[in-house]
Amino acid sequence: MKILGISGSPRPKEQSAVYRLVETVLENTGMEYELISLRNKSISGCIACLGCVKDNVCKVEDDFTPIREKIVKADAYVVGAPNYYSTINAASHAFFERWFQFRHQAGNHLWGKLAVTVGAGGTSGRIPADCLETFLLYNFIETVAKVHGQGAASCYSCGYGESCQVGIPNMLHGPGVKITEDMIPDVKKQPDVMAAAVNAGRLLASRLQSDHDRLAVTDTMQAKMMSMFESAV
Ligand SMILES: Cc1cc2nc3c(=O)[nH]c(=O)nc-3n(C[C@H](O)[C@H](O)[C@H](O)COP(=O)(O)O)c2cc1C
């Protein structure tokens, strides 16, 4: 069994809260995994050409193309994105729009698979974790756990963080804030968040290894999606 990890942060992995959390979840599955970062990748959103409807293969050629087969072959996913303007960042959105190619006819490549979603934000990562769960639901993938934490907003290192009226340091600590190393959010310093990442990895592995029934998960997720549609009307 193999798990595919996706980090949607454009920042280097050493700086990225999303990358760190996705990696921690993957490490704690104890299973074989591959972690792909969307940093420096050129991936467009879905262009609604409908070229994928017959064979479930997207006809747009870009950096998504070599990842497609890894998505199909993976038994589960650990996917993470940063909070940009109270939704997921554009790179992650574009990437997950392209999963539209798997949604047609009997293109049963992803149905009933399992996932963990991860989010990080300058205030909270809950929104991206929830948003990714919804993306996955469209392919009848069950999110077994969500992990979210507070990452460092760029305002802490931009050079104007102490005086900027609309920066995160001012908003969180008030006017006249003096930025010190210990106040810069870092998921590694949030024990509850790191514990949630460890537990999510273990839960995903245990679900995969205990008679994971893809058909049953597919039915449950399909019902969940229908009820989401009904309540949205
Ligand atoms: C363009 C932009 C918009 C952002 N908007 C939000 C936001 O609306 N809410 C929030 O909590 N954080 C916001 N952030 C902060 C990021 O979510 C935060 O820095 C997070 O740690 C990024 O994840 P990463 O460390 O994995 O790159 C924004 C950052 C950028 C660059």
From TrEMBL:
Keywords, sorted A to Z: Flavoprotein, FMN
Flavoprotein as UniProt keyword: yes
Record protein name field: NADPH-dependent FMN reductase
Domain NADPH-dependent FMN reductase-like: from-to ranges: 1-125
Keyword Transit peptide: no
Alphabetized InterPro entries for the sequence: Flavoprotein-like_sf, FMN_Rdtase-like_dom, ISF_SsuE-like
GO MF annotation terms: oxidoreductase activity
Organism encoding this protein: Desulforhopalus singaporensis
SUPFAM superfamilies: Flavoproteins
Taxonomic superkingdom: Bacteria
